[in-house]
DNA sequence: CTCACTACTTAGGAGATGCGCG
DNA sequence: CGCGCATCTCCTAAGTAGTGAG
């Protein structure tokens, strides 16, 4: 193994660029906020002070919020310095392996075989996944078997030569039963388990940052297991090793209580770096990259960064027209590099594509973003479905999620793409002269803090704002307004290509809906026939009674048709949402102040939009946005 | 420029929990 | 008051983007 490199020299990060302008902007926002009528806000946050000035004792949550750290009302730290005090208990380690009971056996070539502890543990990783699709994949099997054999004793290596002869079924059953037994536990037992978990959370799940108790995001080390990559990952099935204290670097403040490593163990290193936000880190053995223990999204460190992200996106709003004019001009640039950059930027802006850094081949699944698109990922149609200059994009993006889109583009773009593809193989880079670094250098020059990803944030947020404006009807009731909100949110999710796998129960509930539709259709048909009959009768008799009957039947038909239409809309809605995930954009791309302003403007309770966790994450925005907020 | 390394955000799936309904 | 589905929480993989050495 080459994964262990102890005693390497560590470097400190240098300070980041100045952001004075931004700070000023924030100061202004604050003052603006404080002028708004309603609750008066305090300058300083209270720390455990039992002041009770909130006479109109509202909900508990609000009382709780009273104790929360209103960091956004404080002065910002010197650039690059993330904290002055950081104290925590270190990570909570995954429990050690518990050997299987004697009667749960592993079989090789039909015969029971007692495994060494390590070998058995790894066998359980595979056994647990037996009914997962992963274990049917050859790469997964090969990687697993290779890594497993490496950990076996020489006797075991001698015997266990083929994965196909391994029988894990008893082990598998053991874990299935175990999990079922857990589910069937009586209430009080479950309660006890929960209390234990809460205690761990209480002890390890928080840290002290600059005098405030802050929630940690992931305070547990990742347990050992088999690596589960996404998509066609070349490393799927490889053994992810157990993290020991000896692998872990602790970061905290010098004068804090240094966390104790578990009994009989030592930390790899303890450092006191206040220019970073992480509390602990280790190197994982699959990709040889660092993993970190960091704070929860509700924390100051994360919240401030999030806020800053949206402020950068808002600054883009002011210059985006110039930038667009600039890249359109660059479509004609004499420099091929600049032309490629201009076309790529157009895609990033128009289609909200990711930047697309280069990746090491064979290390990860074959996915691309904008700058790493290959010729094989696009098709050019001079005309298609009545449109001119259509580009068909089809590629796997982040998490191996497919991006498929047919989009009409400007003639210049189309011509450029033809040029970029000329004399190239399908597997060649479309933008062969372009890297994300080059693109971002250019963007930085156009606007301070601008990078490719800002376009996604900007376009997502501005789309939400525009869609909300277009779709919300103030006459609607709350449910109707929420529907509009979800539609606006969905427009963003579609733009950003946020997908989910089709819910397991989808087909079933769709079927129920379809049955309803079919029944309704039949009713409509019947009503049509009856109407026809009534009309025929009227033809014959021409009396008032028959005429009234025709009217009645017409009315009925109309109502049924409307009901059918509504069901169809519902089905379309459901179908459209089938593979769309709204959560990612809500959490990462939509400036929360847009949603909060909308809630205030239309009298929709914020809880209808954001659940508790989300409200904690966006506490800064809830505190500062009023109904006039404009992104 | 490339490469190695670092630090951070963004992402979908699995499993846990909660909630409305009969 | 349990059951089945929807929502929430947790987990950790997979991106973006920066730095600095050579």
Kindly list the characteristics that best describe this protein.
Arc Repressor Mutant, subunit A; disordered N terminus; single chain; alpha+beta; 631 residues; DNA Topoisomerase I, domain 2; globular; coiled coil; DNA-binding
Describe the fold and architecture.
This is DNA topoisomerase I. One of its GO terms (biological process) is DNA replication. With 631 residues, this protein is an alpha+beta fold. The protein folds into 4 domains: 116 residues, DNA Topoisomerase I, domain 2 (Beta Complex); 78 residues, Yeast DNA topoisomerase - domain 1 (Arc Repressor Mutant, subunit A), CATH 1.10.10.41; 149 residues, Topoisomerase I, Chain A, domain 3, CATH 3.90.15.10; 163 residues, Topoisomerase I, Chain A, domain 4 (Orthogonal Bundle). The protein contains 19 helices and 15 strands. The chain has a 4-stranded mixed beta sheet with strand order 10-9-11-12, with no helix packed on it. α3 packs antiparallel against α4, α3 crosses α6 and α8 packs across α12. The N terminus is likely disordered. The structure holds a DNA duplex (22 and 22 nucleotides).
Task: Briefly characterize the structure.
The protein has helices at 20-35, 60-67, 117-128, 138-151, 154-159, 169-183, 187-204, 300-330, 336-351, 411-421, 436-446, 452-471, 478-495, 506-541, 544-577, 583-588, 592-602, 612-617, 619-624; strands at 86-87, 106-108, 111-113, 166-167, 206-209, 212-215, 225-226, 239-240, 249-251, 269-271, 280-283, 290-293, 378-384, 387-396, 402-408. It is of the alpha+beta class. It catalyses: ATP-independent breakage of single-stranded DNA, followed by passage and rejoining.
């Amino acid at each position: 193994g080459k994964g262990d490199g102890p005693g390497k020299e560590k470097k400190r990060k240098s300070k980041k660029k100045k952001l004075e302008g931004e700070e000023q902007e924030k100061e202004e926002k604050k003052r603006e906020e404080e002028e708004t009528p309603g609750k008066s806000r305090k300058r300083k946050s209270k720390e455990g002070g039992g002041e009770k000035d909130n006479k109109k004792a509202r909900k508990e949550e609000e009382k709780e919020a009273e104790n929360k750290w209103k960091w956004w009302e404080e002065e910002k730290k010197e650039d690059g310095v993330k904290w002055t005090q950081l104290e925590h208990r270190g990570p909570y380690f995954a429990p050690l392996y518990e050997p299987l009971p004697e009667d749960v056996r592993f079989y090789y070539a039909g015969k029971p075989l007692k495994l060494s502890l390590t070998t058995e543990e790894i066998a359980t990783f595979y056994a647990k996944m037996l009914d997962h699709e992963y274990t049917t994949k050859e790469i997964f099997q090969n990687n697993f078997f290779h890594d497993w054999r490496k950990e076996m004793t020489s006797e075991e290596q001698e015997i266990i030569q083929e994965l196909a002869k391994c029988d894990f079924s008893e082990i598998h059953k053991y874990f299935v039963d175990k999990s079922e037994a857990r589910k069937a536990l009586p209430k009080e037992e479950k309660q006890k388990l929960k209390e234990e978990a809460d205690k761990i959370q209480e002890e390890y799940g928080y840290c002290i940052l600059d005098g405030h108790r802050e929630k940690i995001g992931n305070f547990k080390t990742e347990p050992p297991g088999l690596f589960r990559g996404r998509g066609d990952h070349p490393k799927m099935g490889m053994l992810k090793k157990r993290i020991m204290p000896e692998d872990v670097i602790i970061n905290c403040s010098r004068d804090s209580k240094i966390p104790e490593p578990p009994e009989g163990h030592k930390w790899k290193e303890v450092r006191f770096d206040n220019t970073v936000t992480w509390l602990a880190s280790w190197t994982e053995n699959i990709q040889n990259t660092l993993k970190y223990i960091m704070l929860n999204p509700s924390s100051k460190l994360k919240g401030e960064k999030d806020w800053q992200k949206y402020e950068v996106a808002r600054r883009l709003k002011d210059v985006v027209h110039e930038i667009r004019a600039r890249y359109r001009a660059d479509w004609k640039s004499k420099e091929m590099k600049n032309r490629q950059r201009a076309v790529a930027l157009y895609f990033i802006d128009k289609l909200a594509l990711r930047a697309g850094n280069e990746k090491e081949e064979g290390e990860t699944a074959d996915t691309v973003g904008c700058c790493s698109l290959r010729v094989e990922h696009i098709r050019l149609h001079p005309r298609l479905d009545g449109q001119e200059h259509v580009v068909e994009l089809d590629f796997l993006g982040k998490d191996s999620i497919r991006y498929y889109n047919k989009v009409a583009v400007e003639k210049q773009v189309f011509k450029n793409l033809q040029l970029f593809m000329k004399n190239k193989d399908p597997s060649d880079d479309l933008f062969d002269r372009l890297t994300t670094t080059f693109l971002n250098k250019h963007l930085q020059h156009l606007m301070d803090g601008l990078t490719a990803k800002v376009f996604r944030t900007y376009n997502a947020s501005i789309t939400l704002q525009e869609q909300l404006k277009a779709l919300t009807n103030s006459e609607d009731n709350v449910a109707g307004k929420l529907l509009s909100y979800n539609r606006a949110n969905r427009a963003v999710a579609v733009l950003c290509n946020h997908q989910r796998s089709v819910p397991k129960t989808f087909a079933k509930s769709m079927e129920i809906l379809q049955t309803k539709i079919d029944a309704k259709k039949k009713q409509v048909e019947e009503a049509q026939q009856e109407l026809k009959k009534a009309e025929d009768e009227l033809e014959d008799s021409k009396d008032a009674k028959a005429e009234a009957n025709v009217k009645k039947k017409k009315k009925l038909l109309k109502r049924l048709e409307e009901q059918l239409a509504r069901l169809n809309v519902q089905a379309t809605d459901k179908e459209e949402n089938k593979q769309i995930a709204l959560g990612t954009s809500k959490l990462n791309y939509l400036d929360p102040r847009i949603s909060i302003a909308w809630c205030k403007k239309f009298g929709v309770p914020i809880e209808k939009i954001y659940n508790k966790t989300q409200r904690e994450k966006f506490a800064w925005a809830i505190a500062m946005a009023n109904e006039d907020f404009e992104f």
